[in-house]
Amino acid sequence: MKGSALKPLSQSLLKLNLQTSLSFLSVVTTFIEKSAAILGLEEKEALLLTMAGEEIFSHLCQKAPDTEVEIQCSGAGYYVQIEFLIDVYNLDLKAFNLTTPIRPEEDAFQEDLGLILASRSVDRFQIWEEKGRGLHLCLIKEKVYPQGTDEVPLAARPLAEFFLKTPDREEIKLMARLALSQYPSQVLPVFFPFPGKVADMAAEKAFKAVVAVDPQGHMGGGILWYWRGAKIVACSGPYLFNQLQGSAIAEALVEAVLADIARTKAVGLLCRYPTADLPAKYFEPLGSFSFFPSEGSPLSITAYFRQLQEDPGAMVWSHPEMEPFLRQEFKRRTLPREIRTVTDFGEAKNPFSVLSPTFDRGRSLVTLQPVRPGRDGENNLRDHLEILRKEQWRNIYFEMDLSKSWQVEFVPALYNNHFRPCLVLPYAGDGDLVLFQAEAPASQSAGNHL
Amino acid sequence: MDAHSLERLVPEYIRRFEAYIPSKPDDVLKKFYGCERLYRMNNNENPLGPPVQAQEVIRRFPPPRASIYPSGDSFHLREKLAETFGLHIDQFLVGNGANEVITFVIKAFCQEGDNIITADKTFAVYEWVAEFSGYEARLVPLKDFGFDDQEMLDRIDERTKILFVCNPNNPTGTYWDQGRLRRFLDRIEGRQIVVVDEAYAEFVAEDDFPDGISLIREYPNLVVFRTFSKMYALAGLRIGYLVGDRTVVDLIRRTCVVYSVNGLAQEAALLAVSDREHILRTREMVREGKAYLLPELERLGLPFVSGQGNFVMVKMPIDDGLVYRKLMAQGVMVRTMTGFRFPNYIRVTITHREALEALVEALAKVLTENRF
């Protein structure tokens, strides 16, 4: 599933198949509301999700009437997800752009406003097209958890000996508390301040973790990892708690992660926000990007990556403007790639592009993913950037899959909007993924190196 | 029809499994990595090629014979194996490489809820076949780079059907001697099938190395795998076999796909199996290769694990995936060991001198470029 970061391995699933007709609206809202409650949302969150679902269904009824739609409601303790799957390809998706409300002069504003409100009332809203299946519209609402208290964790101490174990519920909460007390927030998962969520996510296998403990049960460190999409595993940590210089714990933790994923379908292990304790010899530097925290100077962060399989070589699409960057990166990292150039010879294009944002509120981070290309790509991107800046989002990215030539068409629009490529993740999409970062507004610039 | 709707037909244990993607052909790899020649040190192939008589039969294979089905159960080859090892012809089953006979055995003995036991850091196919067939693979950590017999015994329960022992182990080269294998079989007391994979047995010259085939009379629950891919250099023809007690092999035969082994492979294997001279020449080549390579690795400051077999495992100070790419760019292909759960190790086939020298030169360059 697209955007499946931190999704559990197993989840409850309810399905409803019907036609896009407003006469079924109450069936849809009842289905979503009841499902959300059964899957664990409180009344308020269930209602917000239901309202969002109602808006989506109403929109589909207007734009693609009498079409079969499948509505899936799934969840796993800490969140509920509603996914609409409709077998249409020519649907006008313009209204799903984040930027629609800044065009109030358009006739369709009132109907589009409902969609925008819908997308803002949930925690995540994603759109993507899948060949052979149609259009996916996905809404995710997370359970609300109380923030952990400021209770001081048990003091950690250097371990004379240790073994690794999968933490139980209390141990994973303790690991999160210890990490919160010793590491800056940018290297921590955004859910760490919420112990109940940490426990629920671990129970649902949204992530895996190992901790290093001594025979008396003292905790010396830990690491967690989770699937970021279908092919990449991301890790947070390793976190060491008051261990001596040269402790073997960090290497043991990373080796445990590698042993767990070595024979899976994962093609790479990503550590985007590494701690200072990351044993670099197990990784290669992926590249650097600027991180804009809520307070203080921007940080320059080097992300680390490790390929888990022998690289057989691949073809990638590029644009002349991006090619020097790609050539430099492929050479630096000895990545065997054949570059093919996308060029514009004035052929006809869709008038409107569509972008889908994914929000990481904890890091004030947005990642835009292209859903459709269009002649308005540059303006659409500019509008997105403008609205995201207005809403105080500090870290803005654009994710491009180099196996899809139509995504590469966004390159001039990205450069003209002051996005710059920063990371290449081999095979992280259908092909390599390139992350572009929006340059800082004039008032900010990268400073401290992390 | 929507192909995605067919996903509901797929068992859960298949959905979570990913197809193994083998290396691309050499010509494609060379193009991507921009190298003019490629030294293959990734698959433990024998650079001497097949035994002389096998080469001859390959050379003289009449093209019209390609239109004729081969013997469906490799009759003449099994006859020859029976004669060579002093056993009955029906104690042998021939497969399209040893990988196929692994599948035969697991299919024959396992059903839903059953498990197999093997090591965590060994040849992956036992684990893979069990898992994509829906059976649990219990993985016992290696101890001092070797199979841990006591821990394997401790992990047995009433649903354990097969224990797989790779002897010598790929990729560490460690082995159980005759006494240890016997003690293990004694403690199993015939309750489970014990598979001893002897893919690299012909490379071992040690006196205490057990000949698993000779133990089958005493231990009817013992099944031995052999291959023609390594020592006999017939990897391209895909042929291997299993041998066991007649009753056990009769059971396994029920899951066996007949006609899966081509005629040329059968004929070449038949002539290869008794070529003792070929074995001695190959062992000497491996001995000379290690005599050159191991001191060079020491000189470069690279720790290594070198046991039996035509391979050595080398510990690198950087990610083995990165090492692979950097060596490939210099025309040297090795096997990364992350997939074997040995992160940062590479496995190198012991081959002819020219290739080993190219490897040493390439490793030195990698180390120079990545000083830590």
Molecular structure report:
- The complex is a heterodimer of chains A (450) and B (372).
- Chain A is of the alpha+beta class and 450 residues long.
- Chain A folds into three domains: 144 residues, 2-Layer Sandwich (Heat Shock Protein 90); 107 residues, Aminopeptidase (3-Layer(aba) Sandwich); 168 residues, Aminopeptidase, CATH 3.40.630.
- Chain A contains ten helices and 20 strands.
- In chain A, strands 6, 7, 8, 9, 10, 11, 12 and 20 form an eight-stranded mixed beta sheet that branches. Chain A has a five-stranded antiparallel beta sheet with strand order 1-2-3-5-4, covered by helices on one side. Chain A has a five-stranded mixed beta sheet with strand order 15-16-17-19-18.
- In chain A, helix 1 packs antiparallel against helix 2, helix 2 packs antiparallel against helix 3 and helix 4 packs across helix 5.
- The two termini of chain A are 32 Å apart.
- In chain A, 49% of the residues are buried.
- The N terminus and C terminus of chain A are likely disordered.
- In chain B, the strands form three sheets. A seven-stranded mixed beta sheet of chain B has the order 2-8-7-6-5-3-4, sandwiched between helices.
- Chain B folds into two domains: 140 residues, Alpha-Beta Complex (Aspartate Aminotransferase, domain 1); 223 residues, 3-Layer(aba) Sandwich (Aspartate Aminotransferase, domain 2), CATH 3.40.640.
- In chain B, helix 3 runs antiparallel to helix 10.
- The chains are: A alpha+beta (450), B alpha/beta (372).
- At the A-B interface, helix 6 of A face helix 2, helix 12 and strand 12 of B.
Task: List the topology elements.
The complex is a heterodimer of chains A (about 450) and B (about 375).
Chain A: E1 12-19, H1 25-38, H2 43-63, E2 68-75, E3 79-86, H3 109-120, E4 124-130, E5 134-142, E6 163-165, H4 169-182, H5 195-203, E7 208-213, E8 219-228, E9 232-240, H6 249-261, E10 268-271, E11 284-291, E12 299-307, E13 314-318, H7 323-332, E14 337-341, E15 354-360, E16 365-372, H8 377-390, E17 395-401, H9 405-408, H10 411-416, E18 419-425, E19 433-438, E20 448-449
Parallel strand pairs in A: 9-10, 12-20, 13-14, 16-17
Antiparallel strand pairs in A: 1-2, 2-3, 3-5, 4-5, 6-7, 7-8, 8-9, 10-12, 11-12, 15-16, 17-19, 18-19
Helix pairs in contact in A: 1-2, 2-3, 4-5
Chain B: H1 12-15, H2 26-33, E1 39-40, H3 52-59, H4 75-85, E2 92-95, H5 98-109, E3 115-119, H6 125-132, E4 136-140, H7 149-154, E5 160-166, H8 178-188, E6 193-197, E7 222-227, E8 240-244, H9 246-253, H10 263-272, H11 276-300, E9 304-305, E10 311-315, H12 320-328, E11 332-333, E12 335-336, E13 345-349, H13 353-369
Parallel strand pairs in B: 1-11, 3-4, 3-5, 5-6, 6-7
Antiparallel strand pairs in B: 2-8, 7-8, 9-10, 10-13, 12-13
Helix pairs in contact in B: 3-10, 4-10, 5-6, 11-13
